[in-house]
Amino acid sequence: MREYFLITDRLGFSEWKEEDIDLARSLWGDENVTKYICATGKFTEPDIMNRLQSEIENGKRYGVQYWPIFDLKTEDIIGCCGLRPYDLKGKIYEIGFHLRSLYWGKGLAPEAAKAVIHFAFDSLHASDLFAGHNPNNANSKKVLERLGFLYTGDEYYAPTGLYHPSYRYQS
Prior knowledge:
globular; alpha+beta; Aminopeptidase; eight-stranded mixed beta sheet
């Protein structure tokens, strides 16, 4: 049984660990998930391993990750949602979420993001949150706008080679 440090009505947030490679594969090995987060649209095995290591390292260095989220009833991995440093001096974090396609359209991304927003401001005392999405991902745009993020312009995102619409959220 996983330990959760943050819980919503349906979700439990945990931390990525070295032994979570199979969970990472089930998430970032799904081309429906990765088609918007990398230029090729598909993560290779080394990409998945590097992403897992990056999340673990962010947890150690900064106390944040795109944390794995689980269904509280089934304990199945739903995806990840969390934070990464964006501007540490300014106490600004980037928020993001990747959900397995099986869980799309069930209101889980906004539920997870709301919990992370509260965590960012209440526990980390963030001053601001940044978010971006692939310009072809209309659903991420809808989620961010529903959450109250305001469009600020487009920023180049090297992993996709595209300019991503970018947003800010202030409490």
